[in-house]
Amino acid sequence: MNVGHGGGEHLQQMNKKTTEFDEYYRLFAQKLYGVAFKMVSNQQDALDIVQESFIRAYQNWAKFRGDSAVSTWLYKITLNLSYDFLKKRGRANILPVEKDFEDRRVVPNDRRIMDSDRMEKIKKEIDNLTPKQKSIFILKSYDELTYREIARIMNSRIGTIKATYFQVIQKIRKNVSDKEVGKNVLQEI
After folding, report:
1. What is the pLDDT of residues 135-148, one digit of tens each?
2. Domain that holds residue 128
3. What is the pLDDT of residue 177?
4. Model's pTM, two decimal places?
5. 11, 51, 105, 150: which has the highest count of C-beta atoms within 10 A?
6. 84 and 29, same structural domain?
């Protein structure tokens, strides 16, 4: 079969696209999974969201204009799919949050019990945030993105992102009985 010159170029372009895409997958799949998991609180659903994010990104690769970083685009797709999932699932139908795996045979000391209780309260507060607030909190606290990066992902102004993040932190501190919840504790969630 004679492919011809044009077919060979197309094949080279497809191989380049696949190679580039594979690299982005290696760089961002784990981070996107972390965001999706923190948004939907379920491993399998988070994996499905990440898979769908990469499928959509691959299908629309040619449409990506490069106005922002590829990572920004991937985060945006993942957050939008997470929002859609949460809308479909509905607030009244929330699945139980998966617990961190701990060895229950080890008897924790009093300090660890207090920290564990405080962490559960914080997790509940985060779960009660609006999807937008939760997204901003996750991207800033867990993924340590800058306000500028979050603003690009969320199609928002930097000032709005800063104000929302500050309000979220204040809300969590106010609603958790231990008023001394610090940034380090919030990042451990």
Report:
1. 999 999 888 999 99
2. 102-187
3. 60
4. 0.68
5. 150
6. yes
